[in-house]
Amino acid sequence: MELPKNFSYEIKDIINLRKDLLKTAKKITEAYSSIDFELINQAANIQKSISAAIKSYLPEYKLLNEAKKTAESFYKTILETFHSAINSKEENEKYAAIMIKSNWPPVIDFAWDVPRMIIEAYETTEFSEFRIELDNALLKFYDDEKIKEKLKSWRDESFLNDRIHILEEIINSFLNGKFFLVVPVMLIQIEGLLGDYFNHIGRMTGKDVTNYLQSIDGKYLGSMYDAVKKYLSDYIYANFKWGSPITSFLSRHAILHGADKNYGTKMNAIKSILLFDFLVHYCPVIIQIIPIGYKNWPFG
Fold this sequence. Notes:
Elements: H1 9-34, H2 37-43, H3 47-83, H4 89-101, H5 114-124, H6 127-141, H7 144-155, H8 164-175, H9 179-197, H10 206-215, H11 222-236, H12 252-256, H13 266-281, H14 283-289
Helix pairs in contact: 1-3, 2-3, 4-5, 4-11, 7-8, 8-9, 9-13
């Protein structure tokens, strides 16, 4: 199985849309603060003053109207972008389910014809053989340059400024083949990111993580987001007890409590990076539009 090397331009468009919307939101706030509403009220009884006030504040009103239109079309644009090259909801769900069954999070930053390619390979190949082909294809796809692209995209996110030094060391460790260092630190950053998003206070438990993920309305991200939630629940936060078999290849509890001594593979390092990247680029789209505690939401 040979996966195309190009990243999806549609995904980059979604990231840019979020940034543009936040800029528009800021302009809305500035526009409101610049309007002297008292002056407008006083001018209401004076025809000449009404005309002058309307003329004076026409640019701000135009800006507010444009921002309103942008916000109204935002969700529709996201959905159309995500599903533009996927023929049906059923196909999207099938792809996500195949990835989870194969122990991978659903990859969403390659060309949109790849999910269909993966589905076809799954349906025409013995599963054991398919797993080997998929693992090899994704290991080849996520070469050093692709991983460097992840770090570059994280540097563009202002809400990661206070942890970018950690992320840089994670990626440097990956490039140097130190996967036993990459995996646990990346898992910690996933947890830290959720804590930031939801302004968590106190000890964070697996139940907290589950509740936070469930509180984000997954309908705006469809099957991909549902699959990521399942991946975190079934694999990352799988139940673990000392003395019992480790049931997950990427168990946060088994790794951080020192029980799993074989987790440090390149494949697991890539999977942890992909999970973090998904939460960085796609959860904020929903959290910032439907504010539920995210600290950088411009309207508090």
